[in-house]
From TrEMBL:
Residues 1-134 form the CRISPR system ring nuclease SSO1393-like domain. This is CRISPR system ring nuclease SSO1393-like domain-containing protein. InterPro entries: SSO1393-like (IPR013442). It comes from Faucicola atlantae. NCBIfam families: putative CRISPR-associated protein, APE2256 family. Pfam families: Cas_APE2256.
Length: 304
């Protein structure tokens, strides 16, 4: 049997497994990796467990650049999955048996922050070695000092060299002449984003997104749980303003207001939560002046 399956069996023998357990298998971008994931997935399903395979293009060691780029995307994908299950009360376990050593080192770093427990099968044995949660501390201050730069990087917006000067090289990666966050930069960002975006309305990351005084006043009446979504929406709006040829994200849905009293003045709106709340703004050229954040006009029967 494969090392991955041996490690899984050893863990199941020591744990109280239930049909509600959900397994995610990470497949490398190789024939062997895909085949192994398919076999283990089928075995788990035959045992009555839920199972999904995570595929990550470029996750192979033949090219360092594509491997590191794949790790960056993988970090984002894994943490999104983990956060969802943690919110629902699940415990998270990482099986680090088998796979690329270079990949396992990165997964161990993620596990030390997000997992309840990580383990691997001790070589030549049927015993598991549980990895203690190390004091793996990511320095959040580098993000706080360079927040606009990190937000522009994670949203694939152009950035000036002077904005990168205070960011350690280990957190950056040059991809075909374009500077992006490295796998470690992505991990650092994802570990801090929720806290930073929940704290307050963050400053605009684009000169094309302008906060008007009345916009700040309107934020005071917003429910606190919408502040992270508000910050994310403003980031998306910056991408839309700076890249007008890009598709308008469905979650953003930026569009002119239909009512004549607003349309004639250049008023637009975009979604914050996909339901009740909107940002209302005036479009001038390719810039947006944000006027108000509040309930949709048809919900509140109010005016801007």
């Amino acid at each position: 049997m494969s090392a991955e399956l041996n490690g899984l069996l050893a863990w199941q023998n020591q744990s109280n497994t239930t049909p509600q357990d959900i397994y995610y298998l990470l497949a490398t971008d190789t024939l062997m990796g895909q085949a192994t994931a398919d076999i283990i997935s089928q075995w788990l399903k035959n045992q009555g467990y839920q199972c999904q395979i995570i595929n990550s293009s470029g996750l192979r060691t033949s090219q360092l650049a594509s491997f590191r780029e794949a790790l960056t995307g993988l970090a984002r994908q894994l943490i999104e999955i983990i956060d969802g299950y943690k919110t629902s009360g699940y415990q998270i376990y990482f099986n680090l048996t088998g796979g690329f050593k270079s990949l396992n080192g990165f997964l161990q770093a993620i596990a030390s922050i997000y997992a309840d427990q990580a383990f691997y099968l001790f070589e030549g044995s049927s015993e598991l070695l549980f990895i203690p949660q190390l004091p793996f501390k990511l320095d959040s201050k580098v993000i706080e000092k360079n927040l606009v730069a990190f937000r522009r990087l994670v949203n694939d917006l152009a950035i000036q060299p002077e904005q990168l000067a205070q960011i350690p090289d280990s957190l950056l990666f040059d991809l075909a002449g374009q500077t992006i966050l490295s796998e470690w930069g992505e991990l650092l960002w994802l570990s801090q984003k929720n806290a930073l975006y929940s704290e307050k309305l963050q400053e605009s990351i684009s000169g094309k997104i302008i906060f008007m005084p009345e916009f700040y006043d309107s934020i005071k009446a917003m429910p606190n749980h919408l502040i992270p979504k508000l910050n994310t929406t403003i980031d998306q709006l910056a991408v839309f303003a700076e890249n007008p040829n890009n598709p308008n994200l469905r979650s953003l849905d930026a569009k002119p207001l239909k009512e004549q009293q607003y349309r004639d003045k250049g008023y637009w709106e975009c979604d914050i939560d996909g339901n009740h709340y909107r940002i209302f703004m005036i479009k001038e050229g390719d810039s947006f002046k944000l006027q108000k954040a509040g309930e949709a006009l048809h919900k509140s029967k109010s005016t801007i």
